[in-house]
Design brief:
Oligomer: heterodimer
Structural class of chain A: alpha/beta
Shape of chain B: globular
Number of domains of chain A: 1
Largest sheet of chain B: none
Structural class of chain B: mainly alpha
Strand content of chain A: 25-35%
Number of strands of chain A: 12
Helix content of chain A: 25-40%
Strand content of chain B: under 5%
Number of helices of chain B: 15
Strand order of the largest sheet of chain A: 6-7-8-3-9-10
Number of helices of chain A: 8
CATH architecture of chain A: 3-Layer(aba) Sandwich
Distance between the termini of chain A: 47 Å
Radius of gyration of chain A: 19 Å
Largest interface: A-B, 42 and 31 residues
CATH class of chain A: Alpha Beta
CATH superfamily of chain B: ABC transporter involved in vitamin B12 uptake, BtuC
Amino acid sequence: MISWHEVSVSYGPDTVVGPVDIDVADGEWVALIGPNGAGKSTLIKAAVDVTPHSGWVSLGGREKRPGLDIAWMPQRPQLPDDMGVGDYVLLGRTPHLGYLAAESKHDVETMRSALSKLDLTHFARRPLHTLSGGEAQRAVLARALAQEAPVLLLDEPTAGLDVGHAVDVLEVVDELRHQEGLTVVIAAHDLTLAARFADRLILLSGGKVVADGSPGQVLMEDTLTAHYGADIRVLEDADGPVVVPVRRSR
Amino acid sequence: MNTRAAPIEARSTRVGWVALAIGAAVVLVAAIVGSVVGAAGLDPSSVVKALIDGMPGVSLETGLTPAETVILYEIRLPRIVLGALVGGVLAVSGATYQGVFRNPLADPYLLGVAAGAGLGATLGFALTGRSGWIAPLAFAGGLCAVAITYALGRSVGGRSPTSLILAGVAVAAFATAIQTYILQQNVDTLREVYSWILGRLTTVGWDEVVELLPYAIAASVILVAARRMLDVLALGDEEAKALGVNVGRVRGVVVVTATLATAAAVSVSGLIGFVGIIVPHTIRLLFGWSYRVIIPLSILFGAAFLMLADVAARTLISPAELPIGVVTAFFGAPFFLLVLRTMRGPA
């Protein structure tokens, strides 16, 4: 279980996030939702220690180890232009290597299997700058997978992707979750997609948790309208709730 | 052929034997050219024989007079070896700075190392007038400049690489201003300082080589060992940190190492610019993006490059000599613009 304990983030005297307590069970898929600035990315970044915060994040009751316990897919990953996809994915092995060590055969095997799980084997030598948006997302996921961490934190993994590629990426994540027994936490803007894939939604607003539960429990019209500041209709589909906006001036 | 495995096996993070062999061959050729060419007009075949004769367990009739042997061993060879050491150090430091600051234009000059060392050397000339003080003061000046650049860069812009480079430019301008002021006040030292600023590889026997050698070896070992970390840092500070890397410590160790070696090189050779830009970028074009390749090859090609630049400096207007810094700037400045033009825009 990965847990955020009393995590809060302040800029100067202003506490922008928290204190927040969240528990995510092993193998669970949780989506953090909420308007821009609600603290979704910030909570994810606090878990991998790239943003200063108070409180702590634990894994199975002990302090998490960076890199080994949590793999992070940032919202805007740095993709060095000329680096090959295979070499990029291999950098995911860094947490397992000493500062001066070189990759072993096992590391190369892990890289290879991550590439093949994401259907990137034939891209191994392609420079990163030649990849399309969807391919690049898969390369970043492959690198995260190569870390062999039990928890995957994805910060808006479908940002900038069309609906087809967005579903592709999330389907892959779901498959990996089942194959590898991963715990998945994503920050999501598309509420309908989040509801399709996640077991549980956590609605953040103003840096606090304001709703937590199954998609059907959290995606209520009046809750969403209050926190997103727009008229929102929630329709029922056989597969779950569908969230649509309503024009103001009618 | 197994089409699945083949593309992955051919990773671009390994230094190929071919590349290493080419590097070693270029170093050897440059060293031989450097020892054959010179004002004393030694017979080339005799020089080569003498070099082979100098190897342990080999004895050859060289055909050189005792005076010529002294010229070869006490004047030419120390200068060639010094050129190789300075070239290797400047090139590998440039490559390191480019990696650690993720800035293709970073080199010892942009960080203020060279200007700080220049100020130190000027103080040495002006205040003491004794050449024994030049090297230690240049060394101290270079280190102070980088420390100030680092502190300023962090306090102004946190951990952004750009703020560091801008701080370096400011520190360099400030050091140069003080240096100019001192020179104005001590016109008699102008000529000496000027010759030092233009860079030179003139030696007194093997003293300078012995002085620089430990720094060159230590820096090479540390930077080659840390070369994989430079590839990890290419992912940005945040992602490197999330991979469990102590980014601050890695950057600190690597920058201090490169700076110590650069300051040591500058303190014996004066300001020889552009080696840290030309060599790593050429290697990048020929052998790819990975610092695991660029770092070791920079040492070899940097050594060869400066030995050959010195040959040009000694022969182009012989019997007079061009300052070697003029030669490297002549090739380096256009190259710098080329790099600037081909850089992809900031992400």
